[in-house]
Amino acid sequence: MIKSIKKNKNKDLPDSIWPITSIPKLEKEGADYLGIDLYELMLRAGNAIYQHVCTYWPNAKHWLFLCGHGNNGGDGYIAARIAKITGKTVTLISYKGKKPSSKETQKAYNDWLLVNEKNNLSEDIIWPDKVDIIIDALLGIGINRIPDKEYSNLIQKANVYLAPIISVDVPSGLFASNGCVPGEAIFAYHTLTFITLKPGQITGKARNHIGKLYYADLGFKSFLLNKKAPILRFDASYLSHWLKPRSPTSHKGNHGKLLVIGGYVGVVGATFMVAEAALKTGSGLVKLLTYKANIIPIITARPEIMIDELTDDKLTESLLWADVVVVGPGFGNHTQGIEILKKVLLVNKTTIWDADALNVLAILDNQCHNRIITPHPGEASRLLNVSVTEIENDRLYTVKSLINKYGGIVVLKGPGTIISDTYGNIAIADVGNAGMASGGMGDVLCGIIASLVGQNLTLFDAACAGCVVHGAAADELATNRGPRGILATDLFKNIWKFVNPITIK
Prior knowledge:
Largest sheet: 11 strands, mixed
Structural class: alpha/beta
Oligomer: single chain
Shape: elongated
């Protein structure tokens, strides 16, 4: 198998993501803006595929194309034609499907036949013994059901072939709308997407299938500058937009008074990690209300944390003192916890609810607009009374449902964490790695977000920036030593770099 040439950096991805339902209109308006027709747009896509393969696999001689009946297949036919007339050995296997192709795809197919009279149809597939590269142009962004038998067979065959796969726009079988994979799906080495990013390339099961994501604007860059995308993509490059340098004359009172409540028997570590993460993120003052037995161990480990015993009087006093309140991590599902949450609801303070507080929220069914909730899929399933599978099958719909039911800001954690609010703002944090699948990561995230709220970011911006800081810090660790074995507390060593983005080179 011919390996790709490694580049120092992936071509920059845009910050905008568009829902699949918007793409046809966007393509038509953009083509009109540029003064081209949709076939010219297809020609540009086909040429981009060809150029991508030549850039990363310059020594590939035998190219295998898998082309479906949609416009995705049309892009593949054009790339195959260019490869053929430039001297590559090309094998093309096509599946006509049950629906008629667009006129653009039919023209691309006819142009392919002008340079290659023989065409392998899926019903009498002739797979070569060896190829250097596979171009997956079977199913495009419009798929919303399990691939039929013919497509599934082609996908299975490609996945076990000893050649890297380049997927056109989206790996076949992966829903570009939401990242769902209900059946067979291509495992791509690279995915080359066009015009704009799609949600299913960033969240859901995307990371299992996308490989490395590349982007070609096909000349739409100037057109898209005038468009406001419905969904934003954030990574570490955006941190300087949120986190400006502090005033030289600022003091601790300017950077938030954060109250963390919790520390039940057996889970005090969760509460401590929230407080520690808040301090590492730059909170001015962090106070922890916990059970008496926890005070000495915590004050010994971190004397900068203000700590007191969790009593009714201290709770009332501390709630009045605080700018931001965190409840849930290390809380414990018990009667006292429910009573504490009811008191928290009575004060008009910004709150962050996580972990055990979310289980209580599912019972209280309370709506609040100055609150951030940070569920993982299991907690989201309890909040909405649906299965985890339903949550994972459409994470964007899940976030909208949580907003409608509970209000405020929702952070749906997982690969491609989604953040949304009641005003319709939606963002996906394009950071993080598999090493974050370990206990305590959510507690650290909770502390980071709470700290940024206290530092006067809006709730939505604090949630977005917190997710990016959290994921970027973990990504640096994974890059330096691999993802396996990363502990939540390991992030404390490098959070400072990302909350001071001017230091990032």
